[in-house]
Specification:
The complex is a heterotrimer of chains A (286), B (95) and C (337). Chain B has one domain: Outer Surface Protein A, domain 3. Helix content of chain B is 35%, strand content 22%. In chain B, strands 2-3-4 form a 3-stranded antiparallel sheet, with no helix packed on it. In chain B, strands 1-5 form a two-stranded antiparallel ribbon. In chain B, helix 1 crosses helix 2. Chain B starts with 10 loop residues before the first strand and ends with a strand. Chain C is α/β, with parallel strands linked by helices. Chain C has a single domain, classed as 2-Layer Sandwich (Beta Polymerase, domain 2). Chain C is built from 15 helices and 7 strands. Chain C has a 7-stranded mixed sheet. In chain C, helix 3 packs across helix 4, helix 9 crosses helix 12 and helix 11 crosses helix 12. Chain C is globular, with a radius of gyration of 21 Å. The chains are: A alpha+beta (286), B alpha+beta (95), C alpha/beta (337).
Chain lengths: 286, 95, 337
């Protein structure tokens, strides 16, 4: 492929090939402080390609491909090429991850102990993680967290943080010095802007953490806290994992152990500051 | 005198076929042979425990449940419905 | 940590012969560098042979990153095997009361019988062969046990029932896995008509009530699909299956069995291609064109050699359908594309 780039995020190495230069340049810039894949061999290959040769120049549209592909996925315009690359990497993880139980959650760590936040889109797991990181927590990831079935430890996956709509100004305010990608307006998911995790998050990406709290945040209501019973937590966490079924027995053991050893709490929070305060209070009480 | 044909014998996997982890009112069960996870409530885990030793008819199973687990309010038709669910899930076989 | 992101060269001049060599002679991978490994693993994934590769390379000293990737592939193959054999077991439970022979086909059969061809193999849908006379009862039993039709389109359904070698596609409503119920091994529109009754008569019991084709039957079936059904897409995996079957069972009586089903030429060609791709044999003429098609995959996992691919695609349909049907079918596909 004409343009290519490789990197490692946490334990996972990617190589990205592209028919266009621009997305690769953007990736290279935003991910400049990230390491190379271990031994120079990437775990996953991603391709950004033009379906027909003339589509490279005429109304260029970026198809997403790689080791794992979705047959009916719609292409993106070239100006959203960075988003295409990030989506493609997510797809490889979602369909191919094996070594770890893949949890669709954000996570932050302090003193070796991690808070996982999971929920539907818009619940605010990205925002809460970003705000907590601004208050001194180590950012581990906003989209995926990796649970090692053998050790029960959580591994960070600190890729570019994907901020949507109102979360963009909130993050810009909390992190005025952060490096940001281009503002991509009016994508299928609204306005999107990527933020590079802080230097500490990148430097610490290989340091695992012990899960200490499972949080199910919900944005928009008056502050409330409720413990989540084990069976409900089990169901919600397996639903939050794209590869629970594929892992088989190690996945079952890892998930039941997580539920048995780590408290699960649901919170409603009316705004970011409240949410952060609730998380801090819960962790202080652990 | 009851002269109906004998009913089916219900069988579950032998010991070691399941990983059983009680959660709360629900029990998480990993079925090794299929690789599937099930969330079960009473009396399903008890049924599987009994049938895992040897195959039993519906009536024999009803008696064992009453004896071993004191599930006094179980009826034959309710038990048959639970067994049908377990058969559909692959946890119990009749052949 | 200062960045160390890698700029890769923009082309890797590899094709799937890299994979064929690695499978045939695993020790040769020791000479690979990072770029070669990356290409090999990508090609293996694209050809659905990474699990097989992982088992072939098991025990060799490999770079840690490669070990991790192949370890994942082994685990994936093991879980896939478990799920496939479970589908077979659920089909057995649904069909046991009917008393008709139920013959497992392809990957599930190899795994159920513990064959070399099943080791590390990626297995897709459950394929079974039943006598045509039992088809209605089988359909009813399968529908009664939780499987349902995938497509409700009446035209497709009529076409399927009349011309194809299998029931329209079925999927299990709880487990979300497909089952293909065959009554012969090639479409009825194909010019070659194998003898399904003979295949079933020669089938071998597994001991649990299910059956597989005889070893010669399995080779004949694999060869039939390599040439008479597909456009050789995914053919490398198919050829590796044949290579494993021949290694395990030899070829005694194979030519006669093939001739009985009108598949003497495809089987002979398959054996030549196995020899050429995996045993260093020399190939000539149209065999070389087949190899070009079979190895048309680059180091990024992309299909290559579009002209060759198109030629095989048209040819495969010509073998499956009479000209008028083919024209109509291709017209519809072209309009939808």
């Amino acid at each position: 492929m004409r343009h290519a780039f490789a990197l490692r995020i946490g334990p996972i190495g990617f190589r990205i090939g592209s028919d266009w230069r621009a997305p690769i340049d953007q990736l290279r810039s935003l991910y400049r402080d990230y390491p190379a894949p271990q031994d120079g061999v990437a775990d996953y290959t991603v391709r950004l390609f033009a379906r027909r040769p003339w589509r490279r120049w005429l109304r260029p549209s970026v198809e997403i491909g790689g080791d794992y592909m979705l047959p009916e996925a719609a292409p993106l315009p070239l100006r959203h090429g960075l988003l295409a690359a990030e989506m493609a990497m997510n797809l490889q993880m979602a369909l191919g991850a094996r070594r770890h139980l893949l949890l669709h959650a954000s996570a932050v760590e302090r003193d070796g102990r991690a808070v996982l936040m999971t929920g539907v889109s818009g619940a605010g797991k990205s925002t809460l993680a970003t705000l907590l990181a601004a208050r001194g927590w180590r950012f581990m990831g906003d989209e995926f967290v990796l649970l090692d079935p053998a050790t029960g430890l959580l591994h960070a996956f600190p890729r570019l943080i994907s901020l949507k709509n109102a979360a963009i100004p909130a993050a810009e305010a909390a992190w005025p010095d952060a490096r940001m990608g281009p503002l991509m307006a009016a994508t299928p998911k609204g306005d999107i802007r990527h933020m590079v995790p802080d230097a500490r998050a990148i430097a610490a990406m290989d340091r695992p953490a012990t899960p200490a709290l499972l949080l199910f945040p919900r944005y928009g209501d008056a502050a409330a806290v409720r413990p989540v019973p084990p069976a409900e937590a089990f169901v919600r966490m397996t639903q939050a994992s794209t590869n629970y079924v594929a892992l088989g027995e190690p996945g079952f053991t890892a998930m039941t152990r997580l539920i048995a050893q780590v408290p699960a709490v649901a919170i409603d929070y009316p705004d970011g500051a409240s949410g952060v305060a609730q998380v801090e209070a819960l962790c202080a009480a652990l | 005198m009851d002269d109906a044909a004998p009913g089916p014998i219900y069988r579950a996997d032998p010991p070691g076929g399941l990983v059983v982890t009680p959660l709360d009112a629900f029990t998480a069960v990993y079925h090794r042979r299929s690789g599937m996870t099930h969330l079960l409530t009473e009396p399903a885990p008890q049924i599987l425990a009994i049938l895992g030793e040897a195959g039993l008819s519906l009536d024999a199973l009803l008696d064992r449940l009453a004896d071993d687990y004191d599930l006094a309010d179980a009826t034959a038709s309710a038990l048959a419905a639970r067994l049908d669910e377990l058969v559909a899930a692959g946890l119990v076989a009749t052949s | 940590m200062r960045g160390a992101v890698t700029d890769l060269p923009h082309t890797v001049a590899a094709d799937a012969r890299l994979l064929a060599c690695a499978l045939a002679d695993p020790g040769r991978v020791m000479a690979l560098g990072a770029e070669g490994w990356t290409s090999l693993l990508t090609i293996a994934r694209a050809e659905q042979l990474i699990g097989t590769l992982a088992l072939r390379l098991d025990g060799l000293p490999l770079p840690r990153a490669v070990e991790a990737i192949l370890g994942d592939a082994r685990a994936a193959a093991e879980q896939g095997r478990r799920a496939a054999l479970w589908e077979a077991e659920m089909a057995r439970r649904a069909l046991a009361p009917l008393g008709c022979p139920v013959v497992l086909l392809k990957g599930t059969a190899y795994a159920a019988a513990g064959l070399l061809a099943g080791q590390g193999r990626s297995i897709g849908d459950l394929d079974i062969l039943v006598p045509r006379a039992a088809l209605d009862r089988v359909e009813a039993a399968v529908l009664g046990a939780g499987w349902e039709w995938v497509k409700p389109d009446p035209y497709d359904d009529a076409y399927y029932r009349r011309w194809m070698h299998e029931l329209p596609p079925l999927i299990h409503r709880e487990r979300d896995r497909m089952i293909d119920v065959h009554h012969t091994i090639l479409p009825l529109t194909a010019r070659v008509t194998p003898d399904p009754e003979r295949l079933i008569a020669d089938s071998v019991p597994l001991g649990n009530g299910l059956r597989t084709l005889s070893p010669n039957g399995m080779i004949v079936h694999a060869a039939a699909h390599l040439f008479a059904d597909g456009d050789l897409a995914g053919g490398l995996r198919n050829l590796w299956d044949i290579r494993c079957l021949v290694e395990e069972f030899g070829t005694e009586g194979l030519a006669e069995a093939a001739a009985r089903h009108g598949l003497r030429l495809p089987v002979a060609r398959a054996l030549r291609l196995v020899d050429g791709l995996f045993a260093g044999g020399r190939l000539a003429g149209s065999d070389r064109l087949c190899v070009r098609r079979l190895t048309a995959r680059d180091g990024w996992g992309r299909p290559t050699r579009p002209v060759t691919r198109l030629a095989f695609y048209v040819r495969s349909h010509a073998l499956r359908m009479p000209p008028a049907m083919l024209a109509r079918h291709l017209w519809t596909k072209w309009r939808k594309a």
